[in-house]
Amino acid sequence: MKFADYVKLSSNERTLIFRKWVEYTEAPKRNKQVLCKTWYRWLREDFNDKRSQNMVKKKEIKETKETKIEIARKAITKKYGEGVISYLGDHEDLEIDAISTGCLELDAALGVGGFARGRLYEVYGPNSSGKSTLALSVCMQALKRDMNVAYVDAEHSLDPKLVRNMGTAVGVNPDSIDLVQAFTGDENLEIAEILMKSGEVDVLVVDSVSALLPKGMAEGEISDNYIGLLARLMSKACLKLTPTANRTNTLLIFINQIRHNIGKWGDDRTPTGGEALSFYATGRIKVEGGESKKSRIIDSKGVVVGHTSEFQVVKNKLAAPWRTAGIELIYGVGYNFSGEIINLGVDFGIIDQKGKWYYYKEEKYDGRDNLTAAFIDDQDMYAELGSKVKSVLGLGDE
Fold it and tell me: Residue 71: phi, psi to the nearest 5?
């Protein structure tokens, strides 16, 4: 029997033949031992050879599978475009690009330094609490970074003077903002989608959800029943605009009003437009202030000139929720950035306060107004204080 035929037999058949061969051979005992060793070596080589063949087959199968999945990936990319499918590992070190809100404490509360680009945010609260001011502040910070901004004014109530004053406060010209004021909500949202798909809009604000007039309501009578029209409109809008924002890396902000939910136990105030927006939003910020006398800012003449806007991060997919922040809002001007630096500086021990006196390094200032005036005269000191406050908040140094 040839060895090639021998290795094709089963293990039991091999053992039986080998034993008979050794038993009936007339070779001396020493030669039998040599033959046994030789056959053992052949069997071991045969085993190793088969194991190698199995490993090669497994490798070929694996390579074939990898080839097929690569073909599938290429087909998906060709049909649906770049970025539709990618490796999870490609996103491990991807930094989230966030646009500051202008309020340092809120930037820290959001966990990523502001509102993340390519995401959807909802800003809601009672009337005159500072919702639009927060959205406009984000727009001003975007303009500081030479970004393109679009503002959908569905309420038709945007104050150009306020926008320019806020731009002056941060050193930008807001005249380049694209202002959209269509009649129906369907038209406003379609225009928003077109602007986003251009890939050139970095920030888009919709002000507000409650003012988005559904087409069916616009074409009907005031006395007709329109239950659920706005909720259906917002559900469709979120379905289309959320992936568009992600692909174009556009920050999408929806401002929303609140209504009283009659018969609800506890806090009966709820945002309008159904539940879709709250589900799709990466973050939801509740804005309050101005309603209580405690939050109002009164000047030396006893006139109310502003209030403290209080923020609560109700939902946050990028960091822990339920964090709070606050900043002074001056009517007709915008946020009091220097006042925030002073408040946080005192809280963090960077600025010493004794009574009405403020101490920083070797200088002392009689009252808050004098320290604010010193910021105007000494921009280096203001920048230095801002850097120290940001460092404590974990926002780094800009």
Answer: -60, -40
